[in-house]
User: Which sequence fits this backbone?
């Protein structure tokens, strides 16, 4: 008993020494400031750095006449209403120290000018016709956002946020609002607001009180200062070429840390609504300073040995840190105590031979993410006995369940129905073989297969769980997915299909319900078809399935562009009920723009969207009439190579297709009621 207590105390001594030593090492590094400085005296196209350092989204352009960033783009838009755009610095800026949760201090100064579009011409965006109260809107914002591809909604949303931006979408903005929206708490049509992750301002400043009119057509200068140690923000306003007002328009306590990530993008956004306005950013300076901890070299490094060697006195003793000495001494004493304990224990046992039992089967460790076979009991425990509250969706092949493995990984389990397994053409063993084949491949745009279950008459496949669910929920739900994300989803799905085809495989279930989204909205193909024909060669079957994948991808691209299902019997016009037929008819009339989802407003790159639509129609041609391979589709999506000419009308005898028989195949296609 005494020896056990002694060992326990020694272990505590060693552990405490290690903790103290690691703590010293952790905080030994000096604190340094990481500074980022941007300077744009103007936005002249003669400066090649402008195009490289500035990312323009939506209806934003560089105005050659004014050497300014301009939102909206008056050169391309026929109707300037309901447009939105962003202009961001192309590279992320460090704005938060994740170790301490400390936000960066920053200061930004910019000149801007807001002109009513009804008095603007292509050369000089100034004028004063009309009354100020009846024109203008919506306003300009300085924004800090987590990504460089999202464009917010037009109108009162000022291009800051859209319906797809959830609570996890961190955004900070200072708005210069020239429209009064009482539903957002606006006091008038001439105010500045501070927005923290919401379109509703946390702080509102009525700038009429300081004699400023944001939409008077003059050039205004703004300066925003944020002091991180004090959590203090100041907003100054002034005029071009003049000093700022002596007192800030607003100053007060503001903690930005809950709304920041370590790296974010800075820039501007603006929009128009029913009334229009030209927003010009003429110059911009930005400086940020964030804290970071540097690690000093370990005493075991060559650099420190050289330094110590140069600083030691000749013949003088070299001191070791006390903590290292304590660890060494404790380890020696512990080793001696263990040896003594073993000696006395062996004397007590006398000459009794000790028996060592070896395990019969030594199991090799399995890679953590390698697909494996599960038992029915394991899957049942993970899904709480296939409980009704874990059902994600169902189709004619079976049901999807949410589950959680013992290691904490969330999974989605597809449980094939007995009816499907007993139907003609279905072979459980062949399906299982295909599941195993798919499970061995990895690609960023394919949902990983965790394993399978073929036990007690059950056949199941276990996938990684994607928290944002399937694409159909975002396309056909209440929110509006912006065009930039739709285009990225189309490219992600094309990459996945091309990879499968390069491995002589096919997906066989290319629908919006089979495309899943992770937390970053990266798209991945899941819920493979696993449908094999009962006869015919594998080579022939693979070729047919890949051709069907290309056709289904074409219809999928049309669904993403149109924001509606391939078959919608509730459409008023008969010709609109079948999306593929409708798209071909509009192509015949040269009215392809009418296919686009009107909920996106004008935040669509028309040239890019029409190109994607034509690629989609190309995929639905007969194989002998020009249907491309997925490799060719990838090339068309990634380059400006001319698209092969489409026929003027939809060819007959297309690949057998009926949009009314397309069955649901994803998590959320048929939610459990």
Assistant:
């Amino acid at each position: 008993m005494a020896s056990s207590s002694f060992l326990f105390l020694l272990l505590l001594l060693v552990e405490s020494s290690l903790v103290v030593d690691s703590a010293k090492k952790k905080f030994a590094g000096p604190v340094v400031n990481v500074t980022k400085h941007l300077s744009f005296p103007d936005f002249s196209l003669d400066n090649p750095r402008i195009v490289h350092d500035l990312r323009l989204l939506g209806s934003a352009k560089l105005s050659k006449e004014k050497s300014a960033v301009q939102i909206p783009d008056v050169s391309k838009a026929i109707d300037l209403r309901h447009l939105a755009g962003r202009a961001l610095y192309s590279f992320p800026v460090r704005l938060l120290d994740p170790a301490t949760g400390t936000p960066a201090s920053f200061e930004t100064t910019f000149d801007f000018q807001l002109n009513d579009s009804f008095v603007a011409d292509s050369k000089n965006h100034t004028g004063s016709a009309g009354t100020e109260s009846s024109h203008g809107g919506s306003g300009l914002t300085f924004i800090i956002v987590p990504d460089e591809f999202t464009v917010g909604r037009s109108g009162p949303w000022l291009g800051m946020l859209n319906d797809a931006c959830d609570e996890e979408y961190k955004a900070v903005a200072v708005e210069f609002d020239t429209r009064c929206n009482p539903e957002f708490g606006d006091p008038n049509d001439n105010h500045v607001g501070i927005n923290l992750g919401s379109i509703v301002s946390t702080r509102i400043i009525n700038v009429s009180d300081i004699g400023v009119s944001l939409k008077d057509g003059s050039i205004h200068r703004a300066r925003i200062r944020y002091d991180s140690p004090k959590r203090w923000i100041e907003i100054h306003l002034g005029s071009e070429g003049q000093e700022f007002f002596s007192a800030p328009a607003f100053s007060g306590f503001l903690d930005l840390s809950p709304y920041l990530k370590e790296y974010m993008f800075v820039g501007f956004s603006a929009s128009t609504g029913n009334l229009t306005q030209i927003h010009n950013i003429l110059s911009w300076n930005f400086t940020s300073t964030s804290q970071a901890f540097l690690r000093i070299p370990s005493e075991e490094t060559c650099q420190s040995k050289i330094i110590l060697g140069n600083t030691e006195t000749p013949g003088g003793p070299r001191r070791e840190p006390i903590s290292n000495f304590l660890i060494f001494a404790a380890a020696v004493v512990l080793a001696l105590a263990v040896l003594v304990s073993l000696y006395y224990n062996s004397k007590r046992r006398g000459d009794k031979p000790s028996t060592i039992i070896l395990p019969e089967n030594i199991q090799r460790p399995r890679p953590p993410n390698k697909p494996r076979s599960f038992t029915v009991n394991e899957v049942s425990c993970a899904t709480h006995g296939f409980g009704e509250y874990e059902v994600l969706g169902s189709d004619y092949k079976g049901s999807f369940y949410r589950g959680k493995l013992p290691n904490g990984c969330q999974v989605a389990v597809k449980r094939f129905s007995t009816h499907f397994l007993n139907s003609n053409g279905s072979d459980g063993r062949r399906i299982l073989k295909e599941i195993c084949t798919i499970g061995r491949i990895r690609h960023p745009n394919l949902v990983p297969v965790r394993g399978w279950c073929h036990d007690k008459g059950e056949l199941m496949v276990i996938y990684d769980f994607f928290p944002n669910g399937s694409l159909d929920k975002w396309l056909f739900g209440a929110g509006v997915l912006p065009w930039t994300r739709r285009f990225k989803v189309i490219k992600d799905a094309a990459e996945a299909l091309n990879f499968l085809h390069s491995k002589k495989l096919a997906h066989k279930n290319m629908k919006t319900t089979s495309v899943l989204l992770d937390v970053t909205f990266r798209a991945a193909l899941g819920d493979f078809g696993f449908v094999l024909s009962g006869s015919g060669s594998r080579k022939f079957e693979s070729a047919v399935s890949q051709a069907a994948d290309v056709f289904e991808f074409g219809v999928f691209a049309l669904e993403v562009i149109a924001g509606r299902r391939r078959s919608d019997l509730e459409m008023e016009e008969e010709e609109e009920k079948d999306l593929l037929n409708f798209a071909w008819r509009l192509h015949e009339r040269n009215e392809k723009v009418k296919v686009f989802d009107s909920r996106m407003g004008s935040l669509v790159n028309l040239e890019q969207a029409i190109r994607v639509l034509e690629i989609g129609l190309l995929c639905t041609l007969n194989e002998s009439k020009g249907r491309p391979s997925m490799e060719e589709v990838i090339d068309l999506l990634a380059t400006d190579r001319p698209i092969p000419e489409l026929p003027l009308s939809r060819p007959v005898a297309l690949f057998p297709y009926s949009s009314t028989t397309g069955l649901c195949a994803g998590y959320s296609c048929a939610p459990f009621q």
In short: The domain at 77-118+132-291 is CATH 2.60.120.200 (Jelly Rolls). The chain has 13 helices and 26 strands. The longest strand covers residues 278-293.
